[in-house]
Amino acid sequence: MQIIVTDQEGTVHELEALEGWRVMEVIRDWGLNIKAECGGSCSCATCHVFVDAEWEDKLNPPSDEEEDMLDSVPDIQPNSRLSCQILMSEELDGLKVTLADSARQEDAA
User: What does pTM read for this prediction?
Assistant: First the structure.
């Protein structure tokens, strides 16, 4: 299974993913520039990604809690999601996301 991730500089990365893992965990474990401060508890919005249009309808809709967290990011778009709330499955093999600037680690440039 793979996730296709475009980082904040526009570089595309093909990351191997495991079923049941959070997209945030995959991105973080491959060393890309994502804060993911709360570790997946949907309480910080620092794993903000933009989901490619072709994949939006394949995801479960965001929970009220996720929508509340997304309202706190400065660069929200209609396709914004928290990557900690997306669980990998066979149906999501090839998922394409772009890391939001608001998810950038300050010490990584």
Answer: 0.93
